[in-house]
Amino acid sequence: MGILNNRKADVDNSPNGDTANLLASQVIGEQSRLKFLYRLIILLHDSDMTNDEKVDFAFRNDTNQDVLKKGMDIFNSYARGGIELLYEKFTEGATTKDDYIERISEIVAEFADLYDIK
């Protein structure tokens, strides 16, 4: 959602911020999808790199720790931006359980229409 909406977010280190954890098994189970998304985000990310440099960055620098850290920072900033966007959409104007369910239904329908998903 972050890359689709050109939305990035910085790390929230505030003591009162919401937190969530992913289990390693969940990440490992989605490793191929995450790698695909990482590469896609690097290729689509608006930067001063040429297309050839982006391809090198996304596919050929897997072992360079500096490049990998920079790439993960980009990937994670879009992930956080997407989470923020979804949170705003889910909670905007919602106060009751029914409101939240209605918002979720609207968002899913909007996404399906936008990307022609049946």
Q: What's the end-to-end separation, in Å?
A: 19 Å
Write the H/E string, N to C. Answer: HHHHH
Structure class: mainly alpha
Radius of gyration using CA atoms only = 17 Å
DSSP helix fraction: 55-70%
- Poorly predicted runs are none
Strand count: 0
| Beta-strand share of residues | under 5%
Number of helices: 5
Largest sheet: none
Shape category: globular
Mean pLDDT: 88
Describe this structure in words.
By secondary structure, the protein is an all-alpha fold. The protein is 64% helix and 0% strand. The chain has five helices and no strands. α2 runs antiparallel to α3 and α2 crosses α4.
Précis, in short:
The chain is mainly alpha-helical. The chain has 5 helices and no strands. The protein is 64% helix and 0% strand.
